[in-house]
Amino acid sequence: MNPRIAFVAAPLLVLAYGVIRILDGLDGVRGPGLAWTSGHLAFIGALALFVPVSWHMRRLAGRGTLSTVSTVIGFAGSLALLAQFVIDIAVSFMATDRAGMDAIFTQVQAVPGVLFVVYNVVPVLFYVGQLALIVQLTVQRHVKIWVPFVYVLNVLMPLVDKDLIPVGAILMLVSFIPIIGQVTRTAEPVVAVPTAA
Predict the structure, then answer these.
(1) In terms of Cα–Cα distance, which of 171, 174, 145 is closest to 158?
(2) Torsion-angle region of 32 (φ positive above 0: left; ψ -120 to 50: alpha; else: beta)
(3) Would you list the domain boundaries of the chain?
């Protein structure tokens, strides 16, 4: 896959999720229904694309122990987020209204370990892993010092208000742009130039 595709499409799918989420809540209730499902599927698509994104950043960072550990940490968070969004979709299919969804969510989250692994703690590792990779790229001078700060702003947006997820997605894309240039440049095959005998 062309690195540009993953680095651009992943934030755009997060943007789509954020916009669909806002539209889904215009009537005062989010889910169940087409908007809930399509928004969550968009985010799952983004998670799939973040795998090559992290892998390319690891390669650019030198494939060392630190970059590998950062990548693995990010992947652990990705799996937790994937589980969370799959559960959300499954719950929406099992319930006929939001009250029914809330009742099922309460049962699911009451299972020991679910809140820790799927909702509250482990998903954060996704952002920790990506930020660690970006910081490594900054220290190695592959990207400018502003890049990790813009990525952190992306992470903070949903914490301020989940309706700011689209803004965070745009900031994520902005933080990825310098990395796209570096990753694409290093991924380009070296073409041998014939010389005269």
Answers:
(1) 171
(2) beta
(3) 3-183
For 158-191, write each residue's pLDDT tens digit: 999 999 999 999 999 999 999 998 987 776 544 4
Tell me if 171 sits within 8 A of 17, measured CB to CB. Answer: no
**pLDDT of amino acid 188:** 52
Q: Which amino acid is at 78?
A: S
How many residues does this entry show for the chain?
197
Spatial separation of the C-alpha atoms in residues 135 and 113, rounded to whole Å: 31
Which pLDDT score is estimated for 176? 97
CB 102 within 8 A of CB 90: no
Name the residue among 7, 59, 5, 25 with its Cα closest to residue 169. 7
Largest CA distance in the chain: 79
| Residue 171: closest CA among 157, 148, 150 | 150
> For 106, how many CA atoms within 13 A lie in the half-sphere containing its CB?
7
Report, as ranges of residue numbers, the positions in the chain whose pLDDT lies below 50.
189-197
Radius of gyration, CA atoms only, the chain: 19
Contact 43, 107 (CB under 8 A): no
Q: What pLDDT was estimated at residue 187?
A: 63
Cβ neighbours of residue 37 closer than 8 Å, sequence gap 6 or more: 89, 92, 93
